[in-house]
Amino acid sequence: VDLAGSERTESAGTSGQMLKEGNAINLSLTALGNCIHALSEGKRPGYRDSKLTLLLQGSMTNGKVIMIAAVSPASICFEESMSTLRFAERIKLVKIKAKKNVTLDPVAEIKKEMEEMRKRMQQEIDDLRSSGATGGGTGTMTGADPEELARLKALLEEQAANEKALREDMEKQVKELATTEAERLANANKISEQWKKALGGATDENKEDIKDPHLLNLNPESRLAETLIYKLKKGTTTAGRANKESPPDLDFSGMGMVKGHCAFVWGGDKVTLKVTTPGARVLVNGKPIEDEVELKHNYRVWLGNNYAFRFAFPGHEDKGEKFDGEQKADYFYAEEEIAKEAAKSNADGQPSALNHKLSEALKKVEQANIIAGDLNRDCVFHPKIITNRVTGENQVVTYVVLPQGTLTWPWEKFNVRLVDMVKLWESWQYATNNDQQFEFPADQQNPFVDNDYQLVGEADVWLQPLANMIETTVEPPVLNVSGGKEGELGVTIAPLDEKGNEGPWEDDDNMDLDPFVESPEELKGKQIQFIVKVDQLRFDVDLSQGGRPKYRDTWVRYRLNPADHTEEFTETKHDESSRIDPKYDHAKKFKQMVDDDFLKHIQKGRITFQIWGKLIEDVPAGARAQRLPDGWKRVTAYQDPDGKLHLELPSEKK
Questions:
Q1: Could you give the 3-state DSSP secondary structure of residue 29?
Q2: What letter does residue 2 receive in the DSSP assignment?
Q3: Which segments of 297-429 are extended strands (E)?
Q4: Between the CA of residue 253 and those of 227, 239, 265, what are the distances in Å?
Q5: Using CA atoms, how far apart are residues 428 and 434, in angstroms rounded to an integer?
Q6: Which among 22, 285, 347, 527 is most buried, taking Cβ atoms within 10 Å?
Q7: Can you tell me the distance from the alpha carbon of 163 to that of 170, in angstroms, rounded to the nearest whole number?
């Protein structure tokens, strides 16, 4: 049964232990597909390429096969559905000759099959010799077809290999039959230990039979939740990334895990979780832990970025948390706790910080910061809720703090970059685990490098003077997406006369050309002309950093009506320098018929000028992307003439 699911890790969003399991599943599915493909072409499949195909060998060669393919009409599932249909098509080409599957004596059956194979091989050899004698008359096969000789030679080699494999199989079965009960029990225990090691220390005992304190995995997929159980031993149980020098009791090598990550100490009626490596990410009930904390029944524990557990302490349920009704201590409850804790320290204090999107953003941003730390990238990511100036809606963006400045990535861009970061981290981890040298890709493929144009900020120029056909020259502040001031933009909007010329119209000959009107209503139904000039931008700079700007290659774009998304942007030329005062010398004339909507726009509306540029690559001496401790936040302060600091200006204080 092929359910048309996605085996691609970036689509499924798997990571950590699930990523390991997904990779193993994908290898088995690939081997199964190769076997089906070989059977459909009449070739011999490689059943021994995986345990799955080895187990299904009998079903694929001797039995009745029914293929059920589940596909989806959704366009996003097109590739998976087509893959499923192609797989079903190959299944239809497989021809199976069923025979009785009755075995009385396995050794006798194997010997019988080997004898039949030997007879078939001898018959083909005799036929080959006969055809050679007929062609040349010497019995040396000199007259045989070379292609036929090559085919038969390959067939003989394949059959010889099959005979060897059957012999080895028979010897293995005979050896297993000769083992004692104690040897079989020892072998079973060995296999159990290997499984336990592969699962990072998880036990194969039933949850109901365990009386010791233990951890149960949490997963967004309910069928996978609490399927892995990690028992704690008396004394200290260590957890962390695998290492040869001091292997942990619980091996978690996923993202955000470090060597000697933490330890669970069980003594008497008390279990304590201790952080044994400074900076290791450990959360209990959504709160970051830096030292130690006592665990109680039903507490939620996060290790690293992807490992979520519910702590269970049989016999001590009355001292732990209790959940009534539909509420459960599941994965989503554990995620919601993280979002609530983050909302408490959110600088804006917005209630929307508790919504699902910010909860997802917090987890993904934390993942990006862990990757940046592991790969030694000097950048820090922060989620931020901003208000769209056009729609008025709140939306989540990501701040990327670099030594040379701060970028603002839309949420969609951050998600795309995060997928590439995960791939890069997986390559780094593989190289690290196998003592190989890891090299970062070129800037074009490096998700931490952004050479695209960034929105520096926006400047608003109100159009009310134009409603009376009066010239206005202003230097509005350029505000970034968080409301911070980046500089001032010099803008002039001037009316033109009916000939398309600028004023002044002071002498008697030109007095009649002056487009000034007492009332904006006089413009209704008429065509007006005006010119928009963008002279230069002056950046605000930090003198402590040498008075250098953060951006280069800047340019400006605008629409007459920012709310009209069908209107094309008007763009200035680029100033490719990195000066503190880039110049544009832009001037463009406009003709506009004044109807009710445009009259309302020039009376109460504005033109929004967007400034774009690229972040300067040069890093100021000593600059670093500062990482704040948990619970800390950045604030803006103001200094009065007496040297005292205030969080608000006097006019803003209530």
A1: helix
A2: B
A3: 300-303, 307-312, 380-387, 394-402, 405-410
A4: 19, 10, 21
A5: 10
A6: 285
A7: 10
Q: What is the DSSP letter of 157?
A: H
520 contacts 468 by C-beta, under 8 angstroms = yes
Partners of 281 in beta bridges = none
481-538 pLDDT tens trace: 877 888 999 999 999 988 888 878 776 666 778 888 889 999 999 999 999 999 999 9
Distances (CA, A) of 363 to 279, 355, 370, 499: 17, 13, 11, 61
Sorted by sequence, the CB contacts under 8 Å of residue 334 that are 6+ apart come out as 218, 286, 300, 302, 308
Q: Which residues pair with 307 in a beta bridge?
A: 303
CA distances in angstroms from 170 to 114, 120, 160, listed in the order given: 11, 20, 15
Q: How far apart are CA 57 and CA 46, in angstroms?
A: 10
346 token code pair = 């959110």
Residue from 193, 199, 234, 191 nearest 217 by CA: 199
Q: pLDDT tens digits for 247-277?
A: 898 888 777 788 889 999 999 889 999 999 8
Pairing of strands 235-240, 250-251: parallel
Q: Which residue in 315, 306, 328 sits closest to 217, CA to CA?
A: 306
| Residue 65 identity | V
Determine how β-strand 583-593 pairs with β-strand 527-539. Answer: antiparallel
What is the spatial distance between Cα 654 and Cα 652, in angstroms, rounded to a whole number?
A: 6
Residue 377: both structure tokens together: 């990238």
Instruction: Note the Cα 98 to chain centre separation in Å.
Output: 47
Gap between the Cα atoms of 530 and 589, Å rounded: 6
